[in-house]
Amino acid sequence: MTLIGMGDSAVWVAAFTGGTAVLASWVTNLGNVRAARVQAEASAQAQHRGRVRELRRAAYLELMGSAHIVGELYRRVFDVFHQITDPDQHLTRFEELRSELREAYDPLMHSVRVVVLEGPSATAEAAQAVLNAARETNRCLWRITCGDADARASFDEVQGAYLRCLARFVDAARAAMATS
Predict the structure, then answer these.
(1) Cβ(120)–Cβ(66) below 8 Å
(2) Which of 5, 31, 130, 145 is most buried, taking the most CB atoms under 10 A from its CB?
(3) Tally of CA atoms within 13 A in the half-sphere of 147 that contains its CB
C-alpha cells in the first residue's frame, strides 16, 4: 500500500506542478496582453498627438503665409502715397490694390477658419483678430478710394493694428506648438 500511496502523491505533485505551470503561463500571458494593450494605446495616443501637432503647424504656417501676402499689399498702399503724385493714378492704383486684396482675403479667411478648427482657443482667437483687423484695413482702403479725407490716417492706424494682431497670432502659435 505504501507504494500505491507514494504513486498517488507523485500523481498529485505532478498534477499540482502542471496546474501551477499552466496557471503561471496564463497569468504571464494575461500580463503580456495587458502590457501590449497599454503599449498600443500609448503608441496610438502619441501618433494622435503628433498628427494634431502637424495639422496645427500646417494651419499656422498657411495663415502666416496668407497674412504675409495681405501685409505686402498693405505696404504697397504706402508706396502709392509716396511714389505717385497724380490723384487719378492714386485712385487707379488703389482700385487695383483693392482687387488684389479681395483675392488675397479669401485664402486668409480660409486659413483662419482652419486655425479656429484646429485650435487651441488662444490661437483661434488670435487668428480671428488678424482677420478682423484685415477686414477693417480693407474697409479703410475703400474709404480712401471714396475720397474720405480722414481715411489715410485711419489706414495707417488700422494697418498697424493688423501687424500687431499678426504678431500676437505668431506668439500664440509658438506657445501652442511648445505645449503640444
Answers:
(1) no
(2) 130
(3) 2
Query: For residue 109, what is its C-alpha cell?
Result: 479667411
pLDDT grade, residue 135 (50/70/90)? very high
Determine the pLDDT at residue 1. Answer: 46
CA distances 17 to 12, 14, 21, 155, Å, are: 8, 5, 6, 89
